[in-house]
Design goal:
It is found in: Membrane. By secondary structure, the protein is mostly helical. It has a domain of 34 residues.
């Protein structure tokens, strides 16, 4: 039964494996190409839409909370500097 699938000799088995490997390898290249195109489109959308419109809008909405360091809120009044007298 195994000899019918892969051939009578090791060379036949290697040829069959090589033939089937080519089909799997071609499928992998097509999958990688599809992933590459998808990542490229995502980068374009990020560069053109997100960074152009979304990021400035978020900065305007959350302006007060975005920037660091914040001013410390204290209950004590500010102290005026005292000069040393000689």
């Amino acid at each position: 039964m195994i000899a019918e699938q892969f051939g009578d000799s090791p060379a036949d088995a290697a040829a069959t494996a090589h033939h089937h490997r080519a089909a799997v390898g071609e499928q992998s290249v097509l999958s990688l190409a599809q992933i590459g195109v998808t990542v490229g489109v995502a980068l374009l959308l990020n560069a053109l839409l997100v960074r152009t419109f979304m990021l400035p809008a978020v900065i305007v909405v959350f302006d007060r909370w975005l920037w660091w360091p914040r001013e410390a809120v204290s209950d004590e009044p500010e102290r005026e500097p005292v000069t040393a007298s000689a």
